[in-house]
Description:
By secondary structure, the chain is an alpha+beta fold. Helices cover 58% and strands 10% of the residues.
Amino acid sequence: MHFAFDDEHLRFRDSVRGVLDRLCTPAAVRRVWEDPHAHDAGRWRALAELGLLGLLVPERAGGLGLDEVALVLALEETGRAALPEAVVDTALVAVPLLAGLEDRAFADPWLGRIAAGEVVVGVGCPPNPWVAHADVAELLLLVDRDEIHALPRAEVRSEPLPHLDGAQRLFRVTSAPSARTRVAAGAHGRRLHAAAVDRGALGTAVQLLGVAARLIDEAVRYARQREQFGRAIGGFQAIKHMLANAQVRLEFARPVVYRAAFGVARDLSTRGRDVSHAKLVTADAATFAARTALQVHGAIGYTWEVDLHVWMKRAWALETAWGTSSWHRGRVASAVLDSQEDAS
């Protein structure tokens, strides 16, 4: 497989990075920790104006009609910036789910509003039962066995849950699903559910790439400034080796994620295995980068005053989002064992 990003992908990534550098600074993320709602409507609209939220929205509904590969580099920037908003759930999970519904009269207006940055959509399903940002989501897509139900926020009850990452909000959502709220069922519902889980895991894996990269950048920056024995600590072999090991894990994870994105975009038979592999290696790279960055910073790395705090907690939080590592490890193991049985 030949795979490479073109100049358009790179320019789009640079545009998203420029906007996030301006609107999603570490100080802005810290303010969200103190805010009851982790959503900035102005920042959300700015991302929509760039095309990030409507990139997967079909052209008939006002979007760009592109695929998941085109979203990868830009989505990594949202991890690098520790963006609080539910961009994975809305732009990568909810959009294809809505676009896959047979009732276009219901789905297309919602897709158009997502592309315009007017709404947030929450998604709840096994193995991701807690709904992110349900307090600001105008529409919730909830899986009940092989059925998918679409409910406005006013028709559900949301209970906030404690979360390690103060810049994100998780809710336990309870509702009364009915024939009126059902938008897909049976085999069609199961296919949409499976695709939604894979897209959620893919998006989380991509964001973990960005989180790991930022953790390494923060550690390198500190190692160049902090001095001991009259020299920057980054000059010591022990520090160099620690940071190099973190960078190696990150670079080894990248092609796995890109392969998973390609599999999702082309709906390959290996899609589930590839996505779970990507989630596992990126979670490992990000948590290793967090431990390394913490060691480089020494004791001050634990304190709230150091920006490192923001990305360490994001790495640990994303590790369990859209499927825990044990759940994804089980999927990879099952795929490998099944392929061995088929070959015997």
